[in-house]
Amino acid sequence: MDNLKYLFAVNVFVWGGIFVYVFSLVRRNHSLKKDLDLLKETLKKDSGHE
Amino acid sequence: MSEASQENDSPGYSLMALAGIGILAALVAIFLYVPTEKTEGVVQRIMYFHVPSAWIAFFAFFIVFLCSILYLWKKEREWDIYAHASAEIGIVFCSLVLITGPLWAKPIWGRWWVWDSRLTLTLVLWLIYVAYLMLRAQSEAGSIRAKYAAVIGIVGFLDIPLIHFSVLWWRGFHPQPKFITTEGLGAGNDPSMNVTLLIALGAFTLLYFLLMSLRVRLERMKDEIDRIKKERLYSH
User: Fold this and answer.
1) What secondary structure letter does DSSP report for B31?
2) Contacting residues for B63 by C-beta, under 8 A, at least 6 apart
3) Domain spans of chain B?
4) ipTM greater than cut 0.90
5) Residues of chain B neighbouring A6 (CB-CB closer than 8 A)
6) Burial letters for B79-102: b for 16+ Cβ neighbours within 10 Å, e otherwise?
7) Which residues pair with B185 in a beta bridge?
8) Nearest-angstrom CA–CA distance, A13 and A22
């Protein structure tokens, strides 16, 4: 039963690692979407001025 | 609304639900269904995380290999996107293999790491694809970067057959395959172990496709931003 700590550590690393990666994808996705929306808005304003 | 942002607004909920159900089923099978192995005890359950992680790493690098060949052949950006996305996911799972392996080795072999052929070649694989991602991160986007990356993606994959056959060709610490054997899939194993491993492999495969869809979407958004910026630059 002493070896349970190794199984526990594996679970922490596997699920923790996957969670951190998914979180980084979601964060990058939000940041890019914000940039994209901002760009589109600027384009719209620019075309309105012309 | 553009294609990329439309895609961004519609995440693959069905894939997300499937992956979630798959992971839940795998956890139930690993911790409640499969009996504890006699010789290794509870620590043997690490196999149900270690083997699927290795499977996904190898599968992801196979996709990199395939898409890199297709990119060099067709010169279409789409293949470069898939290769890049798959390499990143492959690195995540290869890192998990290199973490879960030592955590399994310590209680069984008494050492965290040995310079066994399979372990060393897996570390080499990890380094090759880290180099692949570093090349992509350090150089300017374009067809030259994609070409060099494709070459590394193809050459790097050649390490995988070596990893697979290393335990058969050279004597080392790492055990020989217990699921893919010459007698057949899972021959000689307790059926519950085979079922649990298959469920875990299925769950991790669904997770791979979910991560791929998220990662590919990111790359397409980056491309759209670049396209708009270039259009603005030329219009002024």
Assistant:
1) I
2) B82, B83, B86, B90
3) 15-34+45-235
4) no
5) 43, 46, 103-104, 106-107
6) bbbbbbbbbbbbbbbbbbbbbbbb
7) B180
8) 14
| B134 close contact with A: CB closer than 8 A | no
What's the DSSP call for residue B36? P
The SS3 call for residue B161 is helix
Residue B14 carries which DSSP code?
A: H
**How confident is the model over A1-50, as pLDDT tens digits?**
578 999 999 999 999 999 999 999 999 999 999 999 998 888 888 776 65
| Residue in B closest to A27 by C-alpha | B218
What are the Cα distances from residue B61, in Å, to A40, B134, B156? Answer: 36, 16, 8
Are B28 and B180 in contact, with CB atoms under 8 Å apart? no
Q: Per-block average pLDDT, block size 10, for chain B (236 residues)?
A: 47 86 96 90 94 97 97 95 97 97 94 92 96 91 89 95 85 72 70 93 96 95 88 72
Answer whether B49 sits within 8 Å of A18, measured CB to CB: no
pLDDT tens-digit series, residues B38-70 = 888 899 999 999 999 999 999 999 999 999 999
Residues 6+ apart with CB under 8 A from B5: A33, A36, A37, B221, B224
